[in-house]
Amino acid sequence: MRYRLRVNPIACAGHGLCAELFPERVRLDDWGYPIVAPEPFDERLLPHARRAVDQCPRLALLLEQAESRSHRAHA
Amino acid sequence: MSQATIAPPVALPWLLGGPPAEIGPEPLQDHLDRLGPCPVGGPDLLSALRSTGLRGRGGARFPAWRKWRAVRERSQGRAVVLVNGAEGEPASWKDRVLMAMRPHLVLDGAELAADTVGAAEVVLYVGSELTDARQALERAIQERGGRRWGRRRTRLVAGPPRYVAGEETAAVRFVDGGPARPTFRPPRPFERGVRGRPTLVQNVETLALVALLARFGPAWYRTVGTSSSPGPLLVTVAGAVRRPGVHEVPHGVSLGQVLATAEPTGPVAGVLLGGYFGAWLPPARAGSLALDDQALAEAGLGLGCGVVFALPGEACPLMETARVLGFLAHESAGQCGPCRYGLGAVADVAHRVAAGQGGADEVALLQRWAGQLRGGRGACRHPDGAVTLLTSALETFSEHLRLHLRGGACPASRAATCLPFPPLREGWR
Q: Is this prediction's pTM over 0.90?
């Protein structure tokens, strides 16, 4: 299984914990908001991703299965 | 389909064919005499949409049949059709002209869409400043028997004059009584739209084309345009031309031909294609560029909402771009950090460069921010659109940029704006 993170940018307030907890896929822009790398990751990184998702004070980080993104072609 | 006893039009214009604009909105009887009765929508129409690949004309150019099918699958007779005539793009008037001249073509398309997706309600969402368009549609609804024309409830909602108010989730939110600001997806409108119902949000030009396609069929529709982009499109041409306005052209026509039809008045610094989310093109490249989705996609470009603006040779393209960026920053819904803070910062620095107060460091900063702000970081494509415009300007006007970096602002940067801007508004209702 491959996974991917997604930010709900409306909920995100730029606390930046995600970049600290999961630097493998998240860095911050010049205003402190997360830039999530699009490359999917596997189980090896999953605990780190989960921790970032759980620790987000705004619950703005979503963990998705990479395959589920094919829905996006829909609209 | 193709039940018409009336011969279909051959040469363009199709959408704007019939009586001239000065006559005002075409009355219902004239519309029916000219084009014949409106057929009933259904699976055949969905197939026709699919076989022609008709794309939405609001700017995203998404294949209409996919949205229609998605709403139809979920509808159970309770879907909503949201007719999008918000047209918040300052350089575009084609939706306004179409609604004001051919309201019955738009309403036919709305009814056909409602038949096909199984909708119980039609909402016409029209920019509040587009008075002529709203009046034409209101009168047309009365002509068809009032709020219950056809088989379903119809109402007209005036949307606020904001750039992002026409974005589909913003439109749904406003119709439901909220602010006209985009929402996070999912759910998308075809899943949960107006009052939680599956909702088809479709631009007025798209629906008007459907009204013709349903009457005359896909084979007729393909007689104009290219194999990847059949049919005509409306473009709004303005800037350094003698005949600015809305032109109906076949897909595949070159940008050079479009400009020639509008009669250029002199040298052009660059051509803006697609609106304020679009891209600047050098005149030499613009000339031979075909207005076809596939050809444009291969060049990393898009038709957007069909804006073609020829910037006069004597204008300062950097200042014009900085003004657009300032406008887009103001028009941000302010919900997402990258858009809320990023666009304002970009606009400030772009303005400094255009005013001759910025050097290579500022240009490097703009490039850095363009890299950070692209890639779908907002709930909608607002930041992506602004970045597309910025990067195309830095590339297309690199020579002019060198002049600014070497000798300060050019005299033209202090001249009045060429691109159109509406008065800046606050509020989202």
A: yes
